[in-house]
Amino acid sequence: MKKYWQILKNYKTSLILSPILVLVAVLCETIQPMFMAKIVDDGVMQRDLSVVTETGIYMVLISIAGLTVSVINVYVSSKASIGFGTDLRTALFDKIQQLSFFDIDHFSSASLITRLTNDISKIQQIILMSMRMMLRSPLMLVMALFFVITINTDLALILLIAIPVLGVSVFFILRKGFPFFLKVQQKVDQLNEVVRENLINIRVVKSFVREDFEADKFEKSSGELRDMVIHASNIVASIFPVMQLVLNVSIVAILWIGGFKVMEGELKVGELISFVNYLSQVLMALMMLSMIFMNLARASASSERILEVLNANPSLVNTPEGLQDKYRVTRGEVVFKNVSFRYPSGETDVLRNINFEVKPGETIAIVGATGSAKSSLVQLIPRLYDVTSGEILIDGISVKSYHLDELHVRIGMVLQKNELFTGTIMENLRWGKEDATLAEVEEACIAAQAHEFIMSFPEGYNTMLGRGGVNVSGGQKQRICIARALLRKPQILILDDSTSAVDTETEMKIRNNLHKLLNNTTVFIITQRINTMQSADKVIVLEDGEINAIGTPAELLENSVVYQEIYNSQQIVF
Ligand SMILES: Nc1ncnc2c1ncn2[C@@H]1O[C@H](COP(=O)(O)OP(=O)(O)O)[C@@H](O)[C@H]1O
Ligand SMILES: [Mg+2]
Q1: Residue 188 in contact with residue 147, Cβ under 8 Å?
Q2: Is the pLDDT of residue 344 over 70?
Q3: Residue whose CA is closest, atom 16 of ligand 1?
Q4: Ligand 1 mean position to 376 CA, how many Å?
Q5: Coil, helix or strand at residue 202
């Protein structure tokens, strides 16, 4: 809540102005029946048309004034609630940027997207609603009661009985409905989740021909939502007959008792009419109040989900020593000492007892079956995850002693699942280094074997990628990603299966170029290709999270069974 208040503070003027506007509008509205009574009693009953005209004009003018004020309030409250929504979304987005891979795994991307969009809109709506109606209902109740009492205290008693009766019945109905409203919200979230997951993974769904399965999943989710909504609506629907009943009974009571009073001369006809009017105003106010409560309940679930992220502590932050930003990665020596690692969601260590040393400028190939934890291993070097036990040293200093920015700038990484952003190729490349000159960009692209195909597009480096632009092939995408990483001239470069979609010949060229462009850079290459392994200075063979063998390609060819198997399986037999 404190977080919300910090943002709401920026809209102080609106928050103060809005209740004042509401007060004026309510005054204009609740005073109308008084004029009505005057028209009937002093005008119609006395056969004095001038009173009717004069009071009528007042009524119209006050009506217009009330409407104008209401319109201004809609403007003021919309502006504030939309502004609040935007600020909140920005705050949430900023927070998500600070989260580590760890935390993103925990929340899941799909759910973060829902929070950024759906949940925020909910909060925005409820703020708009509150600013327009929250104060309005109680104010109307009070004002209507006030006028009623000034007219006739006895009749006011009827209202005083009707209001609690209504209040209590609405309360009971809502209390019964509350859990269902919350469940409706959960079902909506579930449905959203199903849709988002499906869309994010649509390629997988299609390639595995799982559309029917996914459609069933959607139908099930959607059906559950339908049942829940029907249930909740039935409960809400029962509010209206109850209200109608109480309203009608009250009207009859007022006309009955009021009729007597009119006959006895204690009450005027116009006053009786205005009474009936006040009664419906009070009812309207109660209905609005119950609607706000309903929506508040729905929004509270959204609010919880937003606050959960806003209040999350990023699990990977700079250590006190790292914050001092004392150390620089200058040579690119990497040492793993007894490193074990487990994912936060995992039950077993995916890496166990990893020990090895890499000298500056060496090229290390990491090989092993899928799931042997190759990707997990390299992600520990730039501290995308923290080791569970053991230590990783870069240039003799623990990675935890470096500032995270230093690690991320000096260690270039091309992830296995790399994506480009919507924008031009140039924008994507400069994303790695904003101030890169054209010459630098071209140098990196030539090295990554991307220059040629980029220049084959009519617009060259200004070609749009993604939505509304060209779609590059998997191999081309990989080469752009490599160029993006090269631009920074990192001291340590990690290529996680980054050339899997590039043909062997091109890959060899890229490897040779890397050597020339970054001859002091330490390079980790995760690869399936024997050629790449053979050209490395050192090879690490991972098996099920442990180092099975480590050494130069020649050594491994001699004494590692696993390496020999890989080698033999990739020799072309004539
Ligand atoms: N984000 C993650 N959360 C939990 N477990 C993971 C995560 N990423 C990978 N794993 C698990 O860690 C193991 C090693 O995976 P990975 O490092 O991707 O292997 P490789 O790159 O060799 O194919 C696998 O069992 C995988 O299921
Ligand atoms: Mg991998």
Answers
A1: no
A2: yes
A3: 373
A4: 6
A5: helix
